[in-house]
Fold:
Amino acid sequence: MTQTPNSLAEIAAQIERLVAQAELLRHRAVVVVAGEREWGRAVVAAVDVAPYQKRQLWISSEPPAGVDALPAAKARKQLGRELDLLVFDAYSGFDPDAFGAVSGSVRAGGVLLLLIPSLAQWSAFEDPDKERIAVYPHRATDVSGRLLQRLTTLVRESGLPLIEQDRPMHPFAVESVVAVTPPYHDEIYATADQQQAVEAVLHTGSGHRHRPLVITSDRGRGKSASLGIAAAELLREKSRSIIVTAPRRAAVDALFEHAAKLLGVDSAQGSRLEYRQGVIEFVAPDRLLHEQPKADLLLVDEAAAIPAPLLTQMVRHYSRTVFASTIHGYEGTGRGFAVRFQKVLDAEMPGWRQLRMQTPIRWSTGDPLERFVFRALLLDASPVDGDQLATLSLDECHFETVERAALLTGEPLLAELFGLLVLAHYRTTPTDLRNLLDGPNLSVELVRYRGHVVATALVAAEGGFDAELSQAVYEGRRRVRGHLIPQSLALHAGFVEAPQLRCARVMRIAVHPAVQGRGIGTALIERLYAAAEQTGCDYLGASFGMSGELLDFWQRAALRPLRIGLKREASSGAHAVMMASPITAAGRALIEAVHQRLIDQLPLLLTEPLNDLEPELVSRLLAGHASSETASETLDEQDQRDLASFVSGSRGYELCMAAIRKRVLVAIDTPALSENERALLVAKVIEQGGWPRVVESMGFVGRAAAEDALRCAVKRLL
Structure:
């Protein structure tokens, strides 16, 4: 007997009952509405939204008339605000970043309605979001639907409330529930976790110096509110200057609101809250490190989204610091932050402490929407536990190029792979999951040990343009999606032929922390060379935020620097560097020419646009590479006299600087130099910084002391 589909009124009534029960349970409901676009909109229109009139939002590029709406690209504007009703229109494209970001805005008792095509058709749907990863010459129609296929399976298997057009609806609302009340009763604190976090911040603010506190949590645990409560308590105790920093001012709205409420003052609309003689002030990270204002306590919120080099400078400069970050956030950065920053703190501040907030505040434990978002976007994906790799040997590892369809056959494999990428890289977002599954120019290399993922590399095929397109890129008339290295070598480095050659760019490479140093990374690179040669590539390349560790890794793999970004990246806080190693004769000619061009220009670049480059990176870049400035001018007899007279103190720096510069450029990497001496030579001789700047940055008492130290450093080069 054929069952009749439910009417819109019946569907709406079922959703309304579900929302009412979610309110009692302090949960957030999520309902998948699968069918034709106009039918899905009719379902939403039929729901009685009277309770939601002030706090509803559509994420859609073509919303119905008269509703509050944002396109997916602007979904982050909703961060920090609460919603009762959120409609995510997947017909406008399923943007994983937007879905992860805006889902956190739904309050307890609210509902997210996910509008999708029929489940049978969703994976084949021409999703508009595919356009973002359709690398030239591919079109959106060339992008696979593996992510949508995975989501389809998840919807079917998760038991989520599902309404399908032309199919009878199975009742999904529980008939009777017992109302859930917050388990913690306190005028100030919402949970015991929050009270513990506040007490830890208070201890940091008034206890021993140089013992940083790191607070991590998932979203909705009251992390930012805890910082605000603690800041207010510290100001009430005595006058203090508390600086707050975060990637953006909006990220600390909750901090200022809770502090203002507790202090009984107006909530700060700007960036400053005053109480008696004390102050809580927001200062952006770049301004904070440039001006270095005095503070009794520094609070850093959403620390995972701030580049690690900046965090390191903060912990070195300020004696009392608290770093708070979301660990499984929509940006996917928290776990990698925790691992990398822990290494910094272990080295810099061994007395640091860590605290994890686990109890939800904004909704109850077991929230259906949080559970679905975590699974859908793999926000809680983790690599295999390091204890299971204790006996690993390289001989037992299995290397393979994985067919990406195979990643859908076993969730543990995908979770281990993506978890390793998140752990190893600073900014891994949900869109990276889509690119991993669907990117049309991507290949995935895996290293497995007893079935577990211990290393991986994602390689993008780039270049292969015709002469006409290459010329257009070189002249700045065309810029196509993707092809990072070939286009940059043409447009920025000035090599018109570069886009015609084929490049295998290593987008991501990761080795499990528990097995690093055992040759796995080296063996994986060798495999990448072989695969690139087999597919007709002219060179192997990589682009990354430059650090000493990464520069050493890629130089050991025989890659040479080709181009350095003139400004620091917002994502890493470092200058980006492009490196490559040739495979074919054509690749060798290009790489050698571009590399030599960089080495020739580097001494000049270091005097102005790159004069903030770290000394250890300068010495690594110059090591063993003669520029035209040094190769054409060896030290003559007069140069030798100038060096000797400077070292002896009989003549000043300015009278001997030409000879000193020649010597320093070819010998900056000598092991005889201490790190401070190398930094001084870079700052004064290579970057040609003025004496006042050198004295201040290096901590000398005056020019005479700085010049004496410079004489000692130059003497070590003779």
Notes: The domain at 8-164 is CATH 3.40.50.11040 (Rossmann fold). The chain has four domains: 8-164, 192-357, 386-605, 628-715. The mean pLDDT is 90.
